[in-house]
Amino acid sequence: MRRVNKNLKLFGLIATLLALGTLLPGCQQWLRVGFKAEAPVDSNSPAQQKARRRKIYSSTEMRGLWVSNVDSTVMDSFGNMESLAARVSNLNLNTLYPVVWNKGETFYPSTVMERFGAQKISSRYGLPAGNRDPMNDWLILGNQYDLDIVPWFEWGVKVPANSPLATQHPQWLSKDVNGKTTFDQDGTTTAYLNFIHPEVQAFYEQLLVEFVARYNVPAVQFDDHMSLKNVFGYDDFTLELYRKQTGRSAKPAPEAPEWLAWRAGQLSQFVARVSRAIKAARPGVKFSVSPNPYPWSYQNYVQDWPAWVDAGWVDEVVLQVYRTDISRFQGELNSPVLARVKGKTNIHIGILAGLKPEPMPVEMLRAQTAMVREFGFQGVVYFFQESLLQFTAPGETIEGRLNAIKQLFPSPARTP
Fold it and tell me: Cα 11 from chain centroid?
């Protein structure tokens, strides 16, 4: 009889918790992940309030655009952001990948950043003074213009060497084969946060869980900089772990096969940890990566992304096929690795629309987009908004460029 009473009390407690879950913001999410989520979904957040009403389209194709804060004023105001969203929607693109993290800063308010000694939000673009949350603004614009918004964590595990994350946590930094912790990244003295270190892994897990719990996004994306140059990994912590796990005492050469494979395996474990964490915090969210072609990505940046696909840790791959020659572009699409993983996850092709000093002719963009379709991939993502919509190659006009893009996408399509 006592056991029955205990069972009845247990059932009553569960029923009470479930009832509370319908009343208390975030309670259902807390229950769903087994009482482990650090940042339950805040259903009172503006980012959660308005559900997007998707239009019904007859065709399916990824038509994405990376939104960078470099060589652009798009982040300066909500008006600039809305102007871009309206133009992109008018061209029948359907997805924006706006940058939300680079140079050791977030473009949204983060208590995790504060907890680890960094600014809550970047001081750029007057964000703190204006009390702005660009990520929330992107979601509002996505609802308004029927665009998917996939936040892009640019720079991955790289940070400026003078950033708070680097200076306050020197034990987090990786070292190269000569013992240096820094390298030049486009004029910025840069360091790698060592993804093999458990404290670094915990930082990124908490950062991502906080993000997906707060913002109702379909996916989050890391690019080719969720990686490590093959000359790095020579800090004391990493070398000691390598020796302990492999029994090898000699200092390995950067290109040594077993050393490459071990670091690639460590990165794969980190990817798996982040993927599991965000999906526990918000079931249904996808983990997207945008690597370089394989095997270059493996040999130079220890990124074995095909293994991530095989293991089911990533739900979308946007492969950066940044080529100015159509034959080289075709050669990358012919990759046997791409053919092998094509049916295992969503595969899109990243196309370089140009850089500020080197605009890509729109006819090359048309040819590459057509080739992606011929090879049967699920769509394209262009890098980046200014080079696609503003920069012109010799003999072009902006109007002509936009007309050519509109001809590529004459009618809307939903995302895969």
Answer: 42
